[in-house]
Amino acid sequence: MRSPMRSRAEITLGRSPEAPRRARRFVDGVCLDWRITSVTPDAETVASELVENTLRHTGSTPLLTLELDRGELTVAVTDDSPERAFVRAGGAQGGFGLRMVEQAAKDWGCTPSERGGKTVWATLVA
Q1: Which are the contacts of 34, defined by CB distance < 8 A and separation ≥ 6?
Q2: What is the CATH number of the domain that holds 70?
Q3: Please, are residues 9 and 65 in contact by the beta-carbon 8 Å criterion?
Q4: Could you tell me if 44 and 27 are in contact, meaning their C-beta atoms sit under 8 angstroms apart?
Q5: Close Cβ partners of 22 (under 8 Å, ≥ 6 residues apart)
Q6: 46 and 52 in contact (C-beta within 8 Å)?
Q7: Cα(32)–Cα(77) distance, rounded to whole angstroms?
Q8: How many angstroms separate the CA atoms of 31 and 21, rounded?
Q9: Domain count, the chain
Q10: pLDDT tens digits, residue range 47-103?
Q11: Cα–Cα distance, 48 to 30 (Å, whole number)
């Protein structure tokens, strides 16, 4: 039985091509620990896309946070760039990451962080 309390886990990922894969493994382990494996595939997609966006569009080291509260899992990536995240027109150079996040998530957004960067987040129904 799941605890009614809020659960939170986070990891700082390096600026390397391995970061999206490390993000997926982290999400997999946390979802298993929290017994919400039905949401694992979508949470892995969201996490890896948000991490990839941080690597591609900012000079920041991504901080991945997972938070479970009342049956909703929030996947969030914080970076040091004040540039807001937005859905780009897809094309040969990419632009499909946040579209994938939109499709997988109940809701998503971009919130300025206290340190001058931003947090891009998405909620999934666990």
Answers
A1: 2, 7, 68, 126
A2: 3.30.565.10
A3: yes
A4: yes
A5: 11, 13, 14
A6: no
A7: 20
A8: 15
A9: 1
A10: 999 999 999 999 899 999 999 999 999 999 999 999 888 776 655 455 577 888 999
A11: 14
Beta carbons of 52 and 85 less than 8 angstroms apart? no
The percent of residues in the chain predicted with pLDDT above 90, rounded, is 75
Residues in the chain: 126
Residues 121 and 104: beta-carbon distance below 8 Å: no
The torsion region of residue 60 among left (phi > 0), alpha (psi -120 to 50) and beta comes to beta
CB 88 within 8 A of CB 99: no
- Structure tokens belonging to residue 87: 């859905």
Give the pTM.
Answer: 0.89
Among residues 47, 44, 117, 32, the alpha carbon closest in space to that of 78 is found at 117
Q: Beta strand 107-112 with 7-12: parallel, antiparallel or unpaired? A: unpaired
Q: Which two tokens stand for residue 72?
A: 């909703």
**Contacts for 16 with CB less than 8 Å, ≥ 6 apart:** none
